[in-house]
Amino acid sequence: MAMGIEISSLGVDFLKVDPTKQCVIIEDELSDIADVDELRESIPATQPRFVLLSWRINHSDGRVSYPMAFIYTTPRDCVPKLQMMYSGSYNHLIAECGLTKVFQIRELEELDEEWINSHLA
Predict the structure, then answer these.
(1) For the ADF-H domain, which residue ranges apply (predicted)?
(2) What is the C-alpha separation between 100 and 82, in angstroms, rounded?
(3) Left if phi > 0, otherwise alpha if psi is -120 to 50, otherwise beta: which for 13?
(4) Strands (E), the chain
């Protein structure tokens, strides 16, 4: 069995900063992502988001694992105040989640099949 990511097994939590309460909240949870295009389209293009990904990897020895990664999306044309709120929460959130696979994306177009396979496989 070849090792690889099964996109159909991709689970995603979208987190956002609530400016009123000044805390990070879960905005949405998806467990039925069909492909990377659907993932990219689920992320706002003009606002920052924290994205927690979990995916299935089939190892050559028959084992299955479900690693996690953290992606911080921060569009270039976002309101500076909002970017500052997300940047201020970034390190604390990574520490709380205990994740080591951490990435930042400025342009959502970067998030494609090639990016997924090169960064997460």
Answers:
(1) 1-121
(2) 25
(3) beta
(4) 5-18, 23-30, 49-58, 64-65, 68-73, 102-105
| Strand 102-105 versus strand 49-58 pairing type | unpaired
Per-residue pLDDT of the chain (121 residues; tens, 9 = 90+): 445 555 546 789 999 999 899 899 999 998 878 788 888 999 999 999 999 998 887 888 888 888 889 999 999 888 898 899 999 999 999 998 888 899 999 999 999 888 887 887 6
Q: What is the pTM of this model?
A: 0.84
| Dist. CA 8–CA 64, nearest whole Å | 14
Q: Which residue has the tokens 């991709």?
A: 10
- CA-based nearest residue to 16, from 63, 61, 78: 78
For the domain made up of 5-120, give the CATH fold.
Severin (3.40.20)
Reduced DSSP (H G I as helix, E B as strand, rest coil) percent helix, strand, coil of the chain, to 5? 30, 35, 35
Residues 6+ apart with CB under 8 A from 117: 4, 5
Q: How far apart are CA 74 and CA 118, in angstroms?
A: 20
